[in-house]
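Checklist before submission:
- one chain only
- standard amino acids only
- sequence pasted in full

Submission:
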Amino acid sequence: QVQLVESGGGSAPAGGSLRLSCVASGYIVGSRCMGWFRQAPGKEREGVASREGGGKTRYVETVKGRFTISADSAKNTLYLQMDSLKPEDTATYYCAANGYYWCPIDHDTRIYEYWGQGTRVTVSS
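Returned file contents:
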């Protein structure tokens, strides 16, 4: 049984930083596709970043150069380092995995089978 547990959310000022963590059980982090998604109130869930089994990473245009996705196999943990935060980054962030080596290019949420419970991020202006 796959379980994903996110942590690290909280409040930060605009321009600040936060690091999200996603600890996996029943799933080997770094060997298959995993991604970070977010959902703001009243909006659809959107892909933020993904990491394929081979390490290839992708980012949505709005976070490129500010967010970094990484994996620590020893800790079986996926991270999302978020720098230069903006108020529009405010959302609940979810970790997800799809069991495949490859990640969808367009961060299609339908391709992901396993989801965490989410962690809330609030960025103040």
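Reviewer check: The radius of gyration is 13 Å.
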